[in-house]
Q: What sequence folds into this?
């Protein structure tokens, strides 16, 4: 009898052991194959990165010699709050992740970089986990950089963030990771939007910080999941800030494999219904529907569709990386056009003020009348009539009320007075950069002619410009 009891106990133990192993195996989710990700993003190739040092030097010199003088003279930075630094000119493409809390932004970055189950992975969870702006960039080894250090380092492109205050710098963190993809791109993870929280509770101007990153992002992923499709005040404000950047926006419906086909169609329609009032463009942004994390797709879902959507997104990301220099030059040229328009408007305001002033006039009252109703003095119409400026590029008239509120009109000079015998005229130099120098630089990249450092002798963009009046 004792032998029988012992045999029964042994059998029971084996059954329990087998059941425990099955449970353990079932608890370990199957990881998804990453070969398509590595091939699409060219992570397996060992070819050296393209050397654009000569192009970047020329671009930097064009900006400093032809654009920045007019920008500083007419204080453009106080109108747009957008100061371009050398670090920004030489920076890598930036991919920005925005969206509600716990929709999978950090998980998506972990998946793209293969950081899951490594010491480098970003913390994720069902609750709001990311409370900082996290910049993931390349470095020789894993390293965390505090926000105050990033803002103090002028070689990086984040030094202008210091203007948002010390409270924000405590919520800014940089992580250097030795990953091949980060050699060509920088990811920025943002705090999730929580609609029941006021901006003031964050302790820093959240929307202003988002606008800073939006203005500099080459690609913007706005991530949603099936459970967070409602649009509140903070998300509505975010989409207002994205106006004009529709070509960079990509909408992502994440965690799509958690739904059945019919539910997914309803959620897809509900997402467009929520976003339609916020995206006022003829052609809607591209929407990617998939599940961006390392686990295998749920069974009985459209795996082939989700895989194709994921590959399309990776191709989109790779295209931004490949066109980084073209986008950088186009961005500087767009900035130059805005600086030129601003200078022309300030010049027109100043000329009108001088024309209306008499010996007995009150200068403050005269200029207040001009600023309150610029159309009465044809300020903006005269710019459109006399210069090749598009009416769609003109800034908001209300912005100049604030601008001249802190910058007296008498502190500026007319454009005709911004000339020197040796240096030329500021307006002519920026127009030359817009119409000739930057398009030529862009064309040389398209033709595969990478300008070298010596070409600066021809274009006059060297460290010390030659003085043709000085005897050798």
A:
């Amino acid at each position: 009898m004792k032998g029988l009891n012992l045999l029964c106990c042994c059998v029971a133990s084996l059954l329990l052991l087998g059941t425990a192993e099955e449970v353990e195996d079932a608890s370990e989710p199957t990881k998804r194959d990453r070969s398509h990700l590595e091939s699409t993003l060219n992570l397996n190739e060992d070819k050296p990165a393209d050397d654009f040092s000569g192009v970047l030097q020329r671009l930097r010199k064009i900006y400093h010699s032809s654009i920045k003088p007019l920008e500083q003279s007419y204080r453009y930075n106080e109108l747009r709050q957008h100061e371009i630094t050398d670090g920004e000119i030489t920076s890598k493409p930036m991919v920005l992740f925005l969206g509600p809390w716990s929709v999978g932004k950090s998980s998506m970055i972990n998946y793209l970089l293969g950081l899951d189950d490594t010491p480098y992975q970003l913390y994720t969870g069902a609750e709001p986990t990311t409370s900082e702006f996290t910049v993931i960039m390349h470095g020789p080894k894993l390293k965390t950089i505090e926000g105050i250090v990033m803002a103090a380092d002028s070689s990086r492109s984040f030094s202008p963030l210091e203007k948002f205050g010390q409270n924000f710098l405590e919520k800014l963190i940089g992580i250097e990771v030795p990953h091949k993809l980060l050699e060509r791109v920088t990811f920025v993870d943002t705090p999730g939007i929580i609609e029941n929280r006021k901006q003031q509770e964050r302790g820093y101007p959240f929307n202003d910080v988002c606008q800073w990153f939006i203005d500099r992002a080459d690609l913007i992923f706005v991530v949603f999941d099936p459970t967070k499709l409602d649009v509140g005040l903070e998300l509505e404000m975010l989409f207002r800030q994205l106006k004009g950047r529709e070509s960079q926006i990509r909408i992502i419906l994440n965690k799509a494999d958690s739904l059945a086909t019919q539910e997914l169609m309803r959620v897809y329609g509900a997402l467009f219904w929520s976003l339609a009032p916020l995206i006022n463009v003829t052609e809607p942004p591209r929407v990617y529907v998939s599940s961006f994390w390392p686990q295998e797709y749920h069974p009985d879902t459209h795996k082939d569709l989700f895989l194709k959507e994921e590959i399309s997104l990776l191709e989109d990301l790779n295209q931004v990386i490949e066109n980084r220099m073209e986008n950088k030059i186009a961005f500087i040229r767009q900035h130059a056009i805005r600086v030129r328009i601003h200078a022309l408007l300030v010049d027109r305001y100043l000329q009108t003020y001088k024309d209306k002033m008499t010996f007995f006039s009150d200068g403050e009252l005269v200029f207040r009348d001009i600023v309150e109703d610029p159309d009465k003095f044809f300020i903006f119409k005269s710019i459109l009539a006399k210069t090749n400026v598009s009416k769609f590029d003109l800034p908001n008239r209300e912005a100049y009320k604030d601008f001249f509120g802190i910058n007296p009109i008498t502190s500026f000079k007319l454009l005709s007075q911004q000339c020197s015998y040796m240096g030329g005229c500021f307006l002519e130099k920026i127009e030359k950069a817009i119409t000739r120098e930057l398009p030529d630089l862009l064309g040389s990249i398209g033709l595969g002619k990478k300008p070298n450092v010596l070409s600066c002798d021809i274009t006059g963009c060297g460290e010390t410009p030659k003085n043709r009046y000085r005897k050798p």
